[in-house]
Design brief:
Elements: H1 2-6, E1 19-22, H2 24-29, H3 34-45, E2 50-55, H4 58-67, E3 71-75, H5 81-93, E4 106-110, H6 118-121, E5 128-130
Helix pairs in contact: 3-4
Amino acid sequence: KYALAIGGADPHRHSLSTMTMLKDNHIWACGGNITRAVHTAKAAGGFSVKIEVECQSEAEAAEAVKAGADVVMLDNFAQGEELQDVVRRLKGRFDGRGDEGRREFLIEVSGGLDEGNLRGYAVEGVDVLSTSSIHQGVKHVDFSLKVVH
């Protein structure tokens, strides 16, 4: 994480205590109920811990926002116009002009992003582009020290 920060990337979390990320297993542990998972995480983490929910659909993202998630991660969504439409609808739905009220949240896009396709995911309204390709699958440099005998 230190190397990523020095290289100009923003590590997703500095430790498990800096943000609660609810993935599919956590949601299934709450009976598949995103709202219950978010409320449980907020009760456990307190007011100062942000909650992020990994979402597989626009409906899941909307439920997470209504439940109070700080970040919705749109995971493995198609890039380009389809993604732009989902982001536009989510941001518009919670902008304070409709029945849903105003909700502050970030939209993160993740899943399959890499150096070659990043532009297709960088659509208006997306706050965070997340990729593991900058640290997974990268060849390491062997700095081992061998004792000559």
